Amino acid sequence: MRKLLNTLYVTRQDSYLAKDGEALCVRAEKKTLLRLPLIGLQGVVCFGVVNASPALLHACAESDITVSFLTENGRYLASVRGPTSGNVLLRREQFRRADNPEARTSLARFFVHGKLVNTRTVLRRALRDHEHELDTEALNGAILGINSALDHADAAMDDDTLRGVEGDAARVYFGVFDQLILRRNEFPFTGRNRRPPRDAVNCLLSFLYTLLLHDVRSALETVGLDPQVGYLHRDRPGRPSLALDMMEELRPWLADRMALSIINRRSVKPSDFKADGAGGVTLADDARKEVLTAWQKRKQEELLHPFLEERIPIGLIPYAQAMLLARHLRGELDGYPPFIWR
Amino acid sequence: MLMLVSYDVATSDEGGPRRLRKVAKLCGDYGQRVQYSVFECDVDPAQWATLRASLLDVINPEKDSLRFYNLGREWKRRVEHVGVREPPQLDEPLIV
């Protein structure tokens, strides 16, 4: 019988982790917030300014508990792990599947499936909420296009076909994306562009994707996967391919909808976006803070995870997905369940 | 499996407070304090054997008593908490 051990997430700033007997104590402002026996823990993830005593780190290393440190925004910084972590086997399995064309395609299919279903839901939700302000014909057409892309993706036998299907569906989706912007005359959008983003909407999307990428990458590192070896995205030096893979399913409902709500709720104005002289558009400092605050708040909202059937903060969804992927690679789950938003 | 450990330690006795502290500390190394003299320990059989032996080592059987309840693996439907100070559930997401 294998017992699934728990992970402790410490998000409270200026908290102190100490060892007390064979237990971990979380202290803040001279009070003990939590006391957990080390035998029930698998990992500790610290966000931002969290201190940990050397005695605790020694004990964690000895009991095979990984302690990771991330910035407050969730960028991965470092971890302390003992000599006998199961990660090498997990990584080997990750690499083995990346080298096997069939296994690679079957994993890539999960990510594309998740992405397509979630983009379709974004469009359907917009139709439902703002039917009279939108070009319903165009949106319905796009939904049909995504439906057929979904069929093609589920039937795709190799990863090149999958990439093609995914690219076509993205063009269909971004082709009607301007319909979802209720302030179209102030925030024109004619299609996705990047490096550099050439208008305000693209600038906002790129910024949010960066935040999401950091989260997904940290989550993968935290469960012991290599963010650079992916399935849908090809290997390229420095490219976090697996993080980009896992981002696909999270992008539409996390980042795209957030960009839309920031614009539609008038949290930003067109003058918050500045041309940088090289054809690109960047965010002004105040607006950047606005977006970061919205992002952090959104991550604290709770939601029922469709597969785990547990209420978790949205910010932990990348961790839940990374854990599910690791469990699939270890053979504990038959498939990887992408995050599907309903 | 979930073991419920409750204890009475004669604190008026010489060495009593010391035994009480030791018992509480041992229980805290393996489980969660749910009431003043009651701990829930989610342990495997080997860990339980260790904990049990250490507890028996500490107490004075002439003056103190221990009670162990084995709630098994399906303990969730056998436990209900009412009132203040619900202890954290160790198998649910832990976020501070």
From TrEMBL, chain A:
<comment type="function">
    <text>CRISPR (clustered regularly interspaced short palindromic repeat), is an adaptive immune system that provides protection against mobile genetic elements (viruses, transposable elements and conjugative plasmids). CRISPR clusters contain spacers, sequences complementary to antecedent mobile elements, and target invading nucleic acids. CRISPR clusters are transcribed and processed into CRISPR RNA (crRNA). Acts as a dsDNA endonuclease. Involved in the integration of spacer DNA into the CRISPR cassette.</text>
</comment>
<dbReference type="InterPro" id="IPR002729">
    <property type="entry name" value="CRISPR-assoc_Cas1"/>
</dbReference>
<dbReference type="GO" id="GO:0016787">
    <property type="term" value="F:hydrolase activity"/>
</dbReference>
<dbReference type="InterPro" id="IPR042211">
    <property type="entry name" value="CRISPR-assoc_Cas1_N"/>
</dbReference>
<keyword id="KW-0051">Antiviral defense</keyword>
<comment type="subunit">
    <text>Homodimer, forms a heterotetramer with a Cas2 homodimer.</text>
</comment>
<keyword id="KW-0255">Endonuclease</keyword>
<dbReference type="GO" id="GO:0051607">
    <property type="term" value="P:defense response to virus"/>
</dbReference>
<keyword id="KW-0540">Nuclease</keyword>
<dbReference type="InterPro" id="IPR019856">
    <property type="entry name" value="CRISPR-assoc_Cas1_DVULG"/>
</dbReference>
<dbReference type="GO" id="GO:0046872">
    <property type="term" value="F:metal ion binding"/>
</dbReference>
<feature type="binding site">
    <location>
        <position position="166"/>
    </location>
    <ligand>
        <name>Mn(2+)</name>
    </ligand>
</feature>
<dbReference type="InterPro" id="IPR042206">
    <property type="entry name" value="CRISPR-assoc_Cas1_C"/>
</dbReference>
<dbReference type="Pfam" id="PF01867">
    <property type="entry name" value="Cas_Cas1"/>
</dbReference>
<keyword id="KW-0238">DNA-binding</keyword>
<dbReference type="GO" id="GO:0003677">
    <property type="term" value="F:DNA binding"/>
</dbReference>
<keyword id="KW-0464">Manganese</keyword>
<dbReference type="GO" id="GO:0043571">
    <property type="term" value="P:maintenance of CRISPR repeat elements"/>
</dbReference>
<dbReference type="InterPro" id="IPR050646">
    <property type="entry name" value="Cas1"/>
</dbReference>
<comment type="similarity">
    <text>Belongs to the CRISPR-associated endonuclease Cas1 family.</text>
</comment>
<keyword id="KW-0378">Hydrolase</keyword>
<dbReference type="GO" id="GO:0004520">
    <property type="term" value="F:DNA endonuclease activity"/>
</dbReference>
UniProtKB/TrEMBL annotation, chain B:
<comment type="subunit">
    <text>Homodimer, forms a heterotetramer with a Cas1 homodimer.</text>
</comment>
<dbReference type="GO" id="GO:0043571">
    <property type="term" value="P:maintenance of CRISPR repeat elements"/>
</dbReference>
<dbReference type="GO" id="GO:0051607">
    <property type="term" value="P:defense response to virus"/>
</dbReference>
<keyword id="KW-0540">Nuclease</keyword>
<comment type="similarity">
    <text>Belongs to the CRISPR-associated endoribonuclease Cas2 protein family.</text>
</comment>
<dbReference type="InterPro" id="IPR019199">
    <property type="entry name" value="Virulence_VapD/CRISPR_Cas2"/>
</dbReference>
<dbReference type="Pfam" id="PF09827">
    <property type="entry name" value="CRISPR_Cas2"/>
</dbReference>
<keyword id="KW-0460">Magnesium</keyword>
<dbReference type="GO" id="GO:0016787">
    <property type="term" value="F:hydrolase activity"/>
</dbReference>
<keyword id="KW-0479">Metal-binding</keyword>
<dbReference type="InterPro" id="IPR021127">
    <property type="entry name" value="CRISPR_associated_Cas2"/>
</dbReference>
<protein>
    <recommendedName>
        <fullName>CRISPR-associated endoribonuclease Cas2</fullName>
        <ecNumber>3.1.-.-</ecNumber>
    </recommendedName>
</protein>
<dbReference type="GO" id="GO:0046872">
    <property type="term" value="F:metal ion binding"/>
</dbReference>
<comment type="function">
    <text>CRISPR (clustered regularly interspaced short palindromic repeat), is an adaptive immune system that provides protection against mobile genetic elements (viruses, transposable elements and conjugative plasmids). CRISPR clusters contain sequences complementary to antecedent mobile elements and target invading nucleic acids. CRISPR clusters are transcribed and processed into CRISPR RNA (crRNA). Functions as a ssRNA-specific endoribonuclease. Involved in the integration of spacer DNA into the CRISPR cassette.</text>
</comment>
<feature type="binding site">
    <location>
        <position position="8"/>
    </location>
    <ligand>
        <name>Mg(2+)</name>
    </ligand>
</feature>
<dbReference type="GO" id="GO:0004521">
    <property type="term" value="F:RNA endonuclease activity"/>
</dbReference>
<keyword id="KW-0255">Endonuclease</keyword>
<keyword id="KW-0378">Hydrolase</keyword>
<keyword id="KW-0051">Antiviral defense</keyword>
